[in-house]
Amino acid sequence: MTKTISVAKGLCSPARGAITGTLKPYGVKVLRISEYKDPTLDGYMHCADVTVNDKAAAWAEYLLLRSGRFQLLSKPINPDNEKWALKWNKKMPRPWIEKGCDAKPPEPKRPKQKGQTEQKGRRWWERLFE
Known about the structure:
single chain; alpha+beta; Alpha-Beta Plaits; 4-stranded antiparallel sheet; 5 helices; about 20% strand; elongated
């Protein structure tokens, strides 16, 4: 089963890229996006119907609202999502695709040897006769 969330976004750019960019890092698979212009809204809004899996619908709605880039047009899936999203003032949670606490830190870079920067750019045979 699927659910559809209707949102509106400012006219500066299409909604599709903003929607997928908001949901993809959190593992929400967007099944379909239908963009349209709603004549009842002012002419400066892109509207979109976002179709997602039932299990991900409340989470997707929350993320779209929390990003601060969208206005909800459909009936809320979870009425508390708007209140919770406003609490964070457009600050998004850490995406799940980022490495967590178990990730190893990157290996430290080897320190440069003395004179290494001076040799850069010179050919190997020029360095033979130093």
